[in-house]
Amino acid sequence: MLSKEQIYDIYEKHVAINYTKEYWNRYVSMPFELNGMVWKWENKDFPRVIALLEFENYLPHINVRNINKILTLDGKDDPEMEFLWPDEVTNLEYGVTEGYDLHTLSLPKKDYDFAMCNQIIEHLYDPILCLKNIYNHLKIGGMFYANVPTNNIPHSTPYHFYTGITPVGLGCMVTLAGFDILKIGQWGNREYLMKSYESLWPDYTYSHNPGKNEIDCPVITWVLAVKTQ
Predict the structure, then answer these.
(1) Domain 4-226: which topology?
(2) pTM, whole model, 2 decimals?
């Protein structure tokens, strides 16, 4: 259980710290020159593009050279993998499925260097339990990255349990699972949100200024955390 003080601490240290003009205007001029990697932006949900750009900014904190074993959750095709060069990748399906349900996850190896689950947590009926299971499969110093919608339309029903998780909410979840937070980020604006209810997951062509970020209208949030004990 988290106290009010702990929740406010998450907000002050990792969420409110982003309330700056630089943060909100970071992608007003989109770096379209980066749209040349294997994962093209065309026909991709635009918030995932922003999350990918921010993931690249997190690489100095991740210490990629020390990542040899990765645990991914339905993520073998995630674009973040372009920045990682592990010797071993274990990719599992998420949620209530036959095989490796994250709610009952127990793998032989418990020494992964890095775990990642993108757009997965909303599909877990007990996300904190699942995050604890992921935590238990990381070595000390192992890192965890996830991004989740803060507002989206139900899909993959019946296995869709949360239509949105706020930045503070995501921070609380990973803290309750045992992690120490390194970074929390968010992106969204009203125009994208309205477009997403007209056409599911619009790409960057939804607007003439797609990267605009509005503080009171998050659409996606992400977290980078570490296992310290």
Answers:
(1) Rossmann fold (3.40.50)
(2) 0.95
